[in-house]
Amino acid sequence: MSEGCGIVGIALDEGDAALPIFYALYALQHRGQESAGIAVSKSKSKEEESGVNMPLIKGMGFVYEVFSSHRLESLKGKGNIGIGHVRYSTTGASRAENAEPLVVNYHRGQIAIAHNGNLVNAAELKSELQREGRIFHSDTDTEVIAHLLAKELVRHDPIEAVKVLMRRVVGSYSLVILMDNSLVAIRDPLGIKPLCFGTLSDDKGYIVASESSAIDTIGGDLIRDVRPGEVLIINNSNKNRRVESYQLYRGINTAHCVFEYIYFARPDSVLDGRLVYDVRLKIGERLAEEHGVEADIVSPVPDSGITFAIGYAKRSGLDYMEGFIKNRYVGRTFIMPDESYRDTAVRLKFNVVKRNVGGKRLVLVDDSIVRGATSRRIVTFLKKKGAKEVHLRIGSPPIIAPCYLGINTPTRDELLASNRSMEAIRKFLNADSIGYLSLQGLIDSIGISMKNLCLGCLNERYPVEIPGEVCVARQLKLSHF
Questions:
Q1: Rounded Cα gap, residues 32 and 62, in angstroms
Q2: Which of 134, 152, 311, 405 could form a disulfide with 172 if both were Cys (CB 3.0 to 4.6 A apart)?
């Protein structure tokens, strides 16, 4: 299971936006490792020429691979406002053409856009735009958004154009846009994907980012989350700083993605007023209450299972001990060509501490199980290294359905829990027992009402209309302001 993207936008009173964007993207690297990019622009007064020039650097790879010191230096003096993006593909292939930000020309100049999320009606909208003669250079839904916005900017002022855009697109989207010498931040009316707003260190300007950890990294201060359906326009032209807020749409309910709390967000981030670390600690405690077992130690699958395991150990009274040491210089393991190489890849990534697990009854805590192949290998490795028993405890309910709203998940047939009983799952994973967090336990741990969460991958009920799926949109009708 992989997240879609991380985005950041910065508006300085003066100076260069590229370097702080670079550092903020580093803090968001966990949200996407396929590509990275930065686009910048200079704020201009009304007397100056409109139609801004937007230098752009993007490429495939990690942030540090895309941005050498030389490439960052080339952006020096080019812009005091800018946006950045790290990507893991959920829509569109993993190739350079799909890297973001995207820069699109229109009659008044250029717009640059970076997107976290996924549109469920992108194909329909793209076909409509192609019939109108618009040319696409990528296969991402971000370019669909860019063309739609450029089209509406021909006929409307920026706010009215954004209003029309939000009325047309269906799905999840948090956006940062460079437009009309301003930084624009948009969050979809259901707040599916996170987006927060803060000030920079020494009050030098503003920042919007997918997570508050990016604001912390560059010494800024979190102000609040961007509200679902809200548009922020930040303009620092001629040091005349102003932030305009427009609540364009408001839902009766929200639909925050639960997997931000379970896995995707950094534990030190604050999402919608909740510290992710605290949520995961509560999940671990609830797991111990729901699925206690006689055991000797509690051990996490690093790194995502660590906080859950701490909570489990705290509530159960068992010792917390590392059964694995993670090699943090190894990338993803699912690209290995055959079974024997995949086993080696897992051993490269996780090495068992034999002295800690030998002869022990072990509670192994992880955040979630998708296909289950890696979990099975991990359990097998532990037993080969002498673990007497391995009891799997999972910090989410079973994943039984795909996500259409910005998470790269397998089909139902590929999901381990989609059509298997608990006993069949236990046998497949070679575990002595297995315990998933209950849906109610997850909701209680997050502290947000079920009607305000997106739980589609866990209960097959989605917050927007998706062909062939059950929709709970009747609770989410939008009121236009």
A1: 8
A2: 405
Cut 0.70: pTM above it: yes
CA distance 66 to 26: 11
C-alpha distances out from residue 455 to 93, 122, 196, 202, Å: 26, 22, 22, 40
Q: Which residue has the tokens 């991380």?
A: 6
Bond before 16 cis per omega within 30 degrees: no
Q: What is the pLDDT of residues 139-174, one digit of tens each?
A: 889 999 999 999 999 999 999 999 999 999 999 999
Query: How confident is the model over 224-263, as pLDDT tens digits?
Result: 999 999 999 998 766 678 999 999 998 789 999 999 999 9
Active site residues: 5
Exposed/middle/buried for 106, CB within 10 Å: 0-12, 13-18, 19+?
middle
Using CB atoms within 10 Å of the CB of residue 166, give its burial: 0 to 12 exposed, 13 to 18 middle, 19+ buried.
buried
Dihedral sign for Cα 252, 447, 276, 425, please.
negative
pLDDT at 481: 44
Q: What is the pLDDT averaged over residues 448-465?
A: 94
Cα angle 307, 309, 312; round to 5: 115
Q: What are phi and psi of 54, to 5 degrees?
A: -125, 90
Alpha-carbon distance of 381 to 398, in angstroms, equals 23
Q: How far apart are CA 175 and CA 163, in angstroms?
A: 14
Q: Which of 300, 313, 427 is nearest to 364 (CA)?
A: 300
Angle between helices 276-290 and 306-316 (to 10 degrees): 50
Cβ neighbours for 461, distance < 8 A, ≥ 6 positions apart: 455, 470, 471, 472
Closest CA to 187 of 350, 461, 406, 31: 406
Nearest to 205 by CA among 174, 176, 227, 183: 183
Average pLDDT over all residues of the chain: 90
Q: Is the pLDDT of residue 332 over 60?
A: no
Domains and CATH numbers, the chain: 2-255 (3.60.20.10), 271-457 (3.40.50.2020)
DSSP assigned state of 477:
P
